[in-house]
Design a protein that fits this description.
The complex is a heterotrimer of chains A (330), B (295) and C (407). Chain A is an all-alpha fold and 330 residues long. Chain A is 70% helix and 1% strand. Chain A has a two-stranded antiparallel ribbon. The longest helix of chain A has 27 residues, at 19-45. In chain B, the strands form two sheets. Chain B has a two-stranded antiparallel ribbon. Chain B has a two-stranded antiparallel sheet with strand order 3-4. In chain B, a hairpin with a 4-residue loop joins strand 3 and strand 4 (145-147). The longest helix of chain B is centred in the first third of the chain and has 32 residues, at 9-40. Chains A and C meet through helix 1, helix 2, helix 5, helix 6 and helix 12 of A and helix 1, strand 3, helix 3, helix 4 and helix 6 of C.
Chain lengths: 330, 295, 407
Amino acid sequence: MVDIASGSAAPARIPATGGASRDAAALHRAIFIGLAALLVVAPFALYPVFLMKVMCFALFAVAFNLLLGYGGLLSFGHAAYFGMASYAAAYAAKVWGFTPELAILLGTFVGGLLGLVFGALAIRRQGIYFSMITLALAQMAFFFCLQAPFTGGEDGIQGVPRGKLFGLIDLSDDRALYVFVAIVFLGALALVYRIIHSPFGQALKAIRDNEPRAISLGYRASQYKLAVFVLSASLAGLAGATKAFVFQLATLTDVHWSMSGEVVLMTLVGGMGTIFGPLVGALVTVTMQNYLAQFGAWVTIIQGVVFVVCVLLFRQGVVGLIAKFIRKPL
Amino acid sequence: MATLFGVPLQALSGQLLLGLINGSFYAILSLGLAVIFGLLNIINFAHGAQYMMGAFVAWMLLNYAGVGYWPALLIAPVFVGLSGVLLERVLIARLYKLDHLYGLLLTFGVALIVQGLFRNHFGASGLPYAIPAELSGGHRLPFMFLPTYRGWVVVASLAVCLATWLAIEKTKLGAYLRAATENPALVQAFGVNVPLLLTLTYGFGVALAGFAGVLAAPVLSVNPNMGADIIIVVFAVVVIGGMGSILGAIVTGFGLGVVEGLVKVFYPEGSATVIFVIMALVLLVKPAGLFGRTA
Amino acid sequence: MISKARLLAGAAMLGLAAQDAPAAAQVSGDTIKIGLITDMSGMYADADGSGGAEAVRMAIEDFGGEVAGNKIEFVVADHQNKADIGAARVREWIDRDGVDMVIAGPNSSVGLAVAKIAADKKKPFIAIGSTSSRLTNEECTPFTIHYAYDTVSLSKGTGAAVVADGGKSWFFLTADYVFGASIEKDTRAVIAAKGGTVAGSIKHPLGASDFSSFLLQAQGSGADVLALANAGADTINAIKAADEFGVGQSMKLVAMNMYLTDVHALGLQVAKGLYMTDGWYWDLNDETRAWGKKFFDRTNKMPTLLQVADYSAVRTYLEAVKATGADDGETIVARMKATPVNDVFVKDGVIRPDGRMVHDMYLMQVKTPEESKYPWDYYKLVKVIPGEDAATSKAESRCTLWTNATQ
């Protein structure tokens, strides 16, 4: 059984029972509230569009981490679900005149559907093969987007109308959109938190840690894996579709393999198998991209260095380290 | 003129030959990956970057030191291989006790760094590298005009693949290697220096990538991104072949090159995706790959 | 927990609403701020990139760093070929940093995204390296100026000139995405209009490293002209393979989109004889040579079309600021559209109501190594393509700004 989280991210495991768990739950609740409060004050200090971008990517990383950190499956092709959903939502809103919530739902559905097809293929192999298969399938999706006429090739789908939420609230105002994105983000985060702590999540962790044993206990491992794959792809789709509205565009960047690499980086930096790690990772990575923009190719080099340093020295990631220090799962 | 599905047979044989030429690159690259994977159990994501390095080292040798193509064909892979040895000693060796996926992540990071550095220094639009005088020109075969250099690519890569196969299957060192792949602890107990074996194997696999890079330099654009996309295709090749056998990697590489060549005639738009489609089909029918040992 | 979050988020909306006046209303003070967003690290970095930034600096220096009593400031950023990064950066520039004018290097997806933002914020936007003709066609805005070239100028200009030069029968090797398709479509129309024929075409996937198989098919078609409707590494790889397979002996090779730096990358031995359309060349006359040398001294490379256009665009903009003493988008763009451009880049260039700058283009042929006498001596001029022939006509235009205009 190849299992990435069993190596060193172990301290970040969530204990199943006992006082420690109640403690941790209280801590998590506090963090959630703190996070919400932070989202309220942040736009006063930071640029709202930047914050929305961070939230979209954080959601993407959370979705990815659900698969890697809790399912033990390293997908190297998550850009496919993110990007295809982004195209679907952008197209629906621009050409079919869908309202934002419907377009985003459609995007999420497209991400999930694609996840079902790719996931069913990929879970036939394990470990490194699994990663390579997801990468290859995502590359296929990239070529599809490149050649299909509706995506607009290198121009992408531009000028996506932000529209009116439920036909009522005008999202063209950055502030309204900010609130909407924040709600989607916190909602999805809470959902993932629930999933991880549900019986389904526990079974998933059992399979991750020892697949043969879980199978002998009667769990249908491959069904669980496929389910978490589809969930993760749907959430990645949700992130991509939301991003299409924030920037009002969907382009090839979102389906390119380097995007798949970026989400791995975010999760690795923040701490895989932690709930809040991907958030920190997304913040760090997006900030790096934005503020190192004047240094040209150095962005790639620095990202590479961060990868290497994380793998060699900080396999738990930032949040994983903190969790280890305070001896509580985060 | 005889035709097949509306395509003249003559043209078809030309395309088959061209497919074989492209397959040469897939074969050498997947062979390198397979050798490394066999012993080290890591997927070397930096393989594409090392292939690119091979091409650039050849260019640098020519432009900075006046060393031509033929010496470069030997020197550049050695250089790239040495850089691999260094990489293995300094970084990769620290990961053997961990999950194999960390190796993938580490080498991915290394690939980003190497590509970024070359892009910073040489720009992104590429550099010229001329075909050596001895191999310029071509031969008019009954069915096509074959540039001499392309023919040389097939011959050279077949020779290298065959030599590698022989070295691993028929020599004593190869026997150690195969034994260490099966059971490193036992081989170590017999007094074989396994860490050294690991280092050399990685260096050799990487040198193969560098060799492919030198071969590609005169025919493809020598630019820092040249390895980034081909490596994904090679991953698919490796999944299709299954990394169980050295011979499997070679046969699959050449075979898929030919298949891709045929698709370029009948449905050019699909030539970028055909290998991925084949991969999906193989996974459905034979998840372990065509030459894989177990699922 | 969710309900709590919702509540707090609601509070966020109120808080935001209470913020002061939107940042967009900020006056730029006594500085004129120019922002260049371009590819500094990717495949177009050599054609524009840091050289483009240097060209902008040269234009600012021409004005002594000051215009109409305002200090000129310059910011530059790498969009990494990602539309979202480019769009976010430009939004921030205009909203927070008080950038008065945005100029964009290559990559159409970034150009189109930035054009929308600039129009929303009523700032002049000068597109240099974006090839998409949508910028001044169905997606034209009152604030977009498309300065250097577009897919129409590449296809119409090249198509007409090569047919007139004797290339009657064409074969297309087209990159299978929007850019390739639109170049092929536009060129086909011109070829048909000029009495040429198209013998066939192949769509190849973007980034197809090996072109030999496609070239063999092209060679088999018996056409006189092989048109490469692709870009960057694809064009370079196709030309290398064409050289190897001796395609140039039986066919005229025409690159639909190439920069001087690409020829430099290929080397003359391989690129010789190639036809291409360019909007400028450093070795056209004494004026261009002088500027080229000046640029070379600073960057160690001869300027490309994009870099000289960066220079010229900034100059034209600053002239307009100087003449009007204003920095608001409407006044500046109106002034720019009313004044012909005359400088080292173009002679009598006109910015039309749809925002397209119309100027002559040049059909060039790449010299052989023997013909090349000094470094960067790469092109010989085959034909000057008049500006009107290289642009969308009013009848074809789908820009309502123009088609609805009275004149």
